Each structure stands twice: as C-alpha cells, then as structure tokens.
C-alpha cells in the first residue's frame, strides 16, 4: 500500500496544524499532529469602465480553522452563516486540500454558496476534490430575485484506479460575460463513481473565487 504524509487541515473543529495521510481511495485523511436557462428579463450591459475585478484567495484567511462568513465582505462577497443540506447544517471550514488553503465543500451539507454585495458579470472558481473518484460539479448563478440566470457543469475524474483519471490538482469552473447582473451563486457536486468502494461522496475545496463587479461603479 502506497502512503504519503503531507500537512493538511481538513477536519471540522480541528484547530492549528494537523497532518494528513494519503491512502488509497482518499487524497486527504486528517490525523492529529503536534504542530442558462433562457430568460425573458430585459438585457443589461455588463462590465464597462471602472468595472472592478476581484479575487479572494482563502490563503489570506488561513487553513485549519472555522471560516468567518463575513471575512471577505469588504471585497464584496458574503457567505451564509452555515452550509445546510440533507444532513442538516454544518460549519464553514478552511482546510488544506491538494496543496492549497481552500474552503471545504461537503455535499451532504449542501453547496458552497455566497451572495455579492454588488452584482457581478463574471465568476470563476478554483476547485479540487479531496477524495479519489468521479463527480459532476455544478455552478449556478442567480439574479437578486432568486431567478436562475445561468448554469454550467463539468465532470472531473481524479482517481488512480480509473482509466479516465485526469491527474490530481485544481480545475476551473466559470461563467463569464453574463448578460444580466448576478447576485449569488451555488457550487455543488454529484457523486458519479469511484474505484474505491468506501468512497460514496466526494468532498472538495474551493481555493479562490474571482469575479467582476457589474458596470462602471467604483
């Protein structure tokens, strides 16, 4: 059995540094350590002179601790108090996934989601799975009214036991040049398969989120 030790922090409520053991079937295992649908709405013109491009990188928050959903409010993005899904509500957490600090998404606790304080016209996320297998990732964006404006999906296989393995690392999922202002988004994934029978869902990390504020406002 091939194993690799690497530093990670990917466990709810685990503070400070932890260690990770890379085992068949998982990319990260926490161990204790000393250290669009078509719309009939009127069209708008995105971008424009003064449109602000922003990237939040969760490295600036730091890994191994519970995430403050208002931490990036001054950058124009807010997260709900907690992620909620089929198993109830969990806790936002920034872990160390595939070599980078990342906000952890747990499918059973619902999607990664956020609201923009000012609407945006472009949205891009850097994402990586934290367990081996195949999942379909879905990015949806919404108007202020809650109406779905656009959606995209990508199927990613990072699984050493699967012939379709694309290799490990982060990938980009994005929606750009949107014709109407976007106020919020959700990112979720749907489990497809894994060569490791114990893997029945795949959690993931979002290392950064980039977006362009709508129009010419400062």
Commentary on this structure:
By secondary structure, the chain is an all-beta fold. The protein has strands spanning 4-8, 18-22, 30-31, 53-57, 65-66, 77-78, 84-85, 88-89, 93-97, 100-105, 112-129, 133-142, 148-158, 171-175, 182-193, 204-213. It has one domain: Jelly Rolls. It has no helices and 16 strands. Strands 4, 5, 6, 9, 10, 11, 12, 13, 14, 15 and 16 form an 11-stranded antiparallel sheet that branches. It has a 3-stranded antiparallel sheet with strand order 1-2-3, with no helix packed on it. Residues 1-23 and 28-45 have low confidence and may be disordered.
Please report which band the strand proportion falls in: under 5%, 5-15%, 15-25%, 25-35%, 35-45% or over 45%.
over 45%
Helix-strand string: EEEEEEEEEEEEEEEE
Helices, by number, come to 0
The whole-number mean of residue pLDDT values reads 82
Number of spatially distinct domains: 1
Q: Helix proportion of residues, in percent?
A: under 10%
Highest-level CATH class: Mainly Beta
List keywords for this structure.
218 residues; Jelly Rolls; mainly beta; disordered N terminus; 3-stranded antiparallel β-sheet
Topology:
Elements: E1 4-8, E2 18-22, E3 30-31, E4 53-57, E5 65-66, E6 77-78, E7 84-85, E8 88-89, E9 93-97, E10 100-105, E11 112-129, E12 133-142, E13 148-158, E14 171-175, E15 182-193, E16 204-213
Antiparallel strand pairs: 1-2, 2-3, 4-16, 5-9, 6-11, 7-8, 9-10, 10-16, 11-14, 11-15, 11-16, 12-13, 12-15
